[in-house]
Amino acid sequence: MPSEQIQWFPGHMAKTRRMISETLKDVDVVLELLDARIPESSENPEIAGLTAGKPRLVLLSKASLADPVMTERWKKHFEALERTCIFYDCRTGEGTSEIPRAVRRVCADKLARYRERGMEGRKLRAMIVGIPNVGKSSLINRLSSAGKAKVEDRPGVTLQKQWVTTSLGFDLLDMPGVLWPKFDDRRVGENLALTGAIRDEVMDVEMLASVLCGRLRTRYPKLFCERYRLEPAAIEPLSDHELLEAVGRRRGFLVSGGEVDTLRAAGMLLDEFRAGRIGRITLEAPEEEDGSQRGL
User: Fold this and answer.
1) What angle, rounded to 10 degrees, do the helices at 240-250 and 205-219 form?
2) CATH no. for residue 211?
3) Which of 62, 87, 92, 224 has the highest Cβ tally under 10 A?
4) Same domain for 208 and 164
5) How many C-beta atoms surround the C-beta of residue 156 within 10 A?
6) What pTM did the predictor assign?
């Protein structure tokens, strides 16, 4: 998968960029949802420039699917950059109650100015940004308790910006989830595809599942082998694609002649990873203290 050469929805990104620029003057704070399994890969590199000057709150979304030890490391990483960061899970609702306090904290100066002008009680306005399928609409529905945002477990559901009111002291602006036009790093493209930010219909899912096999073998061998009843010593000499075949054979995904249905095995493996059935897994790490590269 030559991710460094693939461009995804450049027109969509341009439209969303215009939406953000045009609306930013009416916004007090930006809530940036990142996928806790891939915090660096899911951070749109254009958001910082587009929202410059506005307070930003980082929400590590889908935290219940991520390795809790790694999630704590990522939280410390963002805090070291003086960025407020909290855990949030769109499936369980974990962290939802912390968001109003965090919004007030990062907007303390704005709220103080409102009080000085006799405008105490005026609502703040929060813009929600993030890649497709990261949980923005689920967050809005939890905060508003109104179920106004359409939610599906696939990318590209929110297509237009929409304001949603809440009783928490701030209103929410949901922006379309969008990927940036070009990935300079192949691993970023792979991570986004593995976690479902890119539609499987435009991917080589067998190749993608082989990549996942290699990642799991390296970083979470115990979880991987236990889930698919594999022997660590037996899989050591296998290529990533051969490892996918071994997984398919263990699950009985065979066709005539005893060959493995690798397409079916690939779909199953990706589905189980995304649903957290293999275990709590994070695919990249923050920079180590010695300055080594990110990524696992």
Assistant:
1) 90
2) 1.10.1580.10
3) 62
4) no
5) 17
6) 0.85
